[in-house]
Amino acid sequence: MNSGTAFRLQTEEQEYAILSPYAAKSAEGVRARPEEPCPIRTSYQRDRDRILHSKPFRRLKHKTQVYIAPAGDHYRTRMTHSLEVAQISRTVGRALRLNEDLIEAIALGHDVGHTPFGHVGEQALAELVGAFEHNQQSLRTFTVLTGNGQGLNLTEAVLDGILHHTGGGIPKTLEGQIVRIGDRIGYLCHDFDDAVRAGYMTLADLPGGVRAVLGETSSSMITAMTTDMIETSWQKPAIAMSPPVLAAMQEFRQAMFEKIYNSDLLMRERFKGKMIIKELFAYCCANPEILPGEFLRWADEDVTLAVSDYLAGCTDNHAIALFRDIFIPNS
């Protein structure tokens, strides 16, 4: 046995000795295609690294979180959101003695299926193809649209956590359940912080119940909700929040939808983003030869699916540049 393999085995043995009985153990990670284990890294460490080094993850730095083409460098993108969710979720996982590598892999990969222009891009594709959800596209990205059509061969636990970070169904692992709640904590608190920076909200826009339970800054809100998750879930086989904190989170979420996510203030820019997606979709379907050839192959020659995959993977910048190149005359 070489020293590298000994190191991985030692890490796996430490997980059984140190982690909670409810934690997912790296030695039990299962892949769709069997492969030789890494001599140094555990299965979940390897998955995290594959996601971190992938092109879909890198593209997140130019995908909208809330504000399309914001005037400033300090607003969140899908990449910064994913990093922040990973940090929040790992904090909870460490306190509960769960598998931080699995948590990080799920958190880093959970949003790679998001379209350009945030949720309006997702809505546009859903209207065009009948059904489109970013969590399912994230799964398709890592099982088909990477690795030359073979995917990254991630473990089942990572794929399950990515698929069920939102929508119906609960992740099978506690690590995935943490990311599901950590994602909501992250986007609510950080989107509020960005909304204040943009001048769209003030502290007075937060309901009194939210301020009383969670505090008045994004930092205090994150602390309140993560602490509550840890205390409520301690030595239990599921991740949960206490009723008062969960109610405050729901009230916080409702306020954010009213003031930001469904706000008339942002409607004009969102209309533009949605229009770009719809026009590009129609053009690409009528002229599929402009697609990179692999997309048709990965979609088994289904033009609609190939165009949907291609546009979902575009960054905001690329979608805008493509629209300009196709529809705007050269000066």
For the largest beta-sheet, the strand count, sense and barrel status come to: none
Distance between termini? 66 Å
Low-confidence stretches: none
Average pLDDT number: 95
**Continuous helix count:** 16
What is the chain-wise order of helices and strands?
HHHHHHHHHHHHHHHH
How much of the sequence lies in strands comes to under 5%
Secondary-structure class: mainly alpha
- Share of helical residues: 55-70%
Which term fits the overall shape?
flat
Q: Quick one: how many beta strands?
A: 0
- Give Rg in angstroms: 21 Å
Describe the protein:
With 331 residues, the chain is mainly alpha-helical. It has 16 helices and no strands. α6 (118-129) crosses α13, α9 (174-198) packs across α12 and α13 (267-286) runs antiparallel to α15 (303-313). The chain is flat.
Brief write-up:
This protein has helices at 3-18, 43-52, 55-59, 78-95, 100-109, 118-129, 134-143, 156-163, 174-198, 208-214, 218-233, 243-261, 267-286, 293-298, 303-313, 316-327. With 331 residues, the protein is an all-alpha fold.
Task: Give the key terms.
331 residues; mainly alpha; 62% helix; flat
Give a topology summary:
Elements: H1 3-18, H2 43-52, H3 55-59, H4 78-95, H5 100-109, H6 118-129, H7 134-143, H8 156-163, H9 174-198, H10 208-214, H11 218-233, H12 243-261, H13 267-286, H14 293-298, H15 303-313, H16 316-327
